[in-house]
Design goal:
Elements: H1 39-60, H2 80-85, H3 101-111, E1 119-123, E2 126-129, H4 130-147, H5 153-157, E3 158-162, E4 167-172, E5 176-180, E6 189-192, H6 196-199, H7 210-216, E7 225-229, H8 232-241, E8 243-248, E9 253-261, H9 269-275, H10 284-293, H11 298-302, E10 309-314, E11 331-333, E12 344-353, E13 357-369, E14 378-382, H12 387-395, E15 398-400, E16 402-407
Parallel strand pairs: 4-14, 5-8, 11-13
Antiparallel strand pairs: 1-2, 3-16, 4-15, 5-7, 6-7, 8-9, 9-10, 11-14, 12-13, 12-16
Helix pairs in contact: 3-4
């Protein structure tokens, strides 16, 4: 999706040298031997020394989280050579390149279900068949045991097709939302199952809009309520993420996954708020802060987006467009007409970090999901379900380089 490095203050578009100086070494504890005048002094000195050592090691255990992510220069619009020289499994919270094998198999299973000569994508600068995608994934699968020792194999065995103009990066994650199984006090907002008439419909844009569903309560008391949540803003962003976990008052949790949508065109709440002059950036964090300060205008903003998502109960995390669970920092959502499902993508962006402002993320991703808001040259990175995932996904809105990899 989770390590960290020292603060990076240089601008993201600058180019950087590969030569990095050695890290400063921390001096070890000084040891001094002293002559003891009597056995009593020695008797008391030993417990004191043991206590001092225990204190030292206890303090040492508290420091690793200061710098647990692999170091590297900020991501710029750089070449593949420089990218690979700073590429490491730890960037994606992996111990080894072998750890991507389960994610890779999901993509391989998808593309092998297509005819080899069927066109996966055809647009200026990028034409690929499903056979091309299968060969690329198979070659990567064969190289996995060798990549830790020789990452240059990424350059030797693959053609790097640059996505001209760079990529607009965003992130999504699996949020946890407080919920109730009944319409109890403090839980006013219903989350709905997909209505039968919507599941069976064949035409788009004919079902109720968000405004009608929320203001007229046209779905209430039909037995479609999956759960009730405490905050309508949480419900709204659960729809945007497409899946999440409901945390009930008794401490139990349930996964919920996207099931269907009302067919109306999605309009970004961030865009709505920028058009109204309410926000500057419009990222999820800024939106949430505004909603907290302006609770009386929440419904006004949310209902300006006519799109509405319905859910189903699940037994696992977010499910991508391939029908498989997506994996943190490995699975990416793309536009089908820009990057096809099944493609291997080298991606780079400076992601928000609570401690350091922004930190570099260079990774190998797999196009395994799509989204209504993912259009053109945009990549949405699945960040996971922990605290860092929520922070990155709520703040990430940046440009960076990307390449589609194809086997030579």
């Amino acid at each position: 999706m989770h390590g960290r490095t020292p603060a990076l203050n240089a601008p993201p578009q600058a180019r950087f040298s590969k030569n990095n100086g050695p890290a400063d070494a921390l001096p070890g504890p000084k040891r001094q031997n002293r002559n003891k005048r009597n056995g009593l002094a020695q008797f008391f000195a030993l417990p004191a020394l043991l206590s001092l050592c225990l204190c030292f090691f206890a303090c040492a255990k508290k420091t690793p989280d200061e710098d647990i992510r692999p170091p590297g220069p900020p991501v710029a619009f750089e070449g593949p050579d420089f990218f690979v020289s700073n590429l490491a499994p730890g960037n994606q919270n992996l111990k080894s390149w072998m750890d991507i094998a389960p994610t890779l198999r999901k993509s391989l299973l998808h593309v092998k279900g297509k005819a080899d000569d069927a066109v996966a994508i055809r647009r200026p600068g990028l034409t690929l068949t499903y056979g091309d995608l299968a060969r690329t994934l198979t070659r990567l699968q064969e190289l996995l045991p060798l990549l830790d020792a020789n990452p240059q194999l990424f350059l030797l065995h693959f053609r790097w097709i640059e996505l001209n103009g760079g990529i607009d990066y965003s992130g999504y994650y699996e949020p946890t939302v407080r919920a109730s199984r009944t319409h109890a006090a403090g839980y006013p907002q219903a989350i709905y199952f997909c209505p039968p008439e919507l599941k069976n419909r064949r035409r788009r844009g004919i079902f109720y809009s968000r405004r009608t569903i929320e203001e007229k309560q046209v779905l209430a008391d039909r037995g479609l309520e999956l759960a009730w949540v405490a905050d309508p803003v949480d419900s709204f962003f659960l729809e945007i993420q497409g899946s999440g976990r409901l945390l009930f008052e008794d401490g139990t949790q349930s996964h919920v996954n996207y099931d269907c949508q009302n067919g109306h065109k999605y309009k970004s709440s961030g865009k709505i708020m920028r058009e109204k002059g309410l926000l500057e950036r419009g990222d999820i964090y800024e939106q949430r802060e505004w909603f907290k300060k302006n609770p009386d205008r929440v419904r006004e903003i949310l209902n300006d987006n006519p799109s509405y998502v319905f859910f189903r109960l699940g037994d696992r995390g977010p499910i991508g467009a391939m029908g498989h669970e997506v994996d943190a920092w490995l699975s990416i959502a793309t536009s089908r007409d820009h990057i096809p499902l099944g493609a291997v993508v080298a991606y780079g962006v400076n992601v928000p970090d609570q401690r350091h402002g922004r930190v570099p993320l260079r990774g190998i991703g797999f196009a395994q999901d799509v989204g209504g808001a993912i259009k053109g040259n945009r990549i949405d990175i699945f960040c996971g379900s922990d605290e860092r995932a929520g922070y990155v996904a709520s703040h990430l809105d940046a440009k960076g380089p990307a390449w589609v990899l194809t086997a030579n």
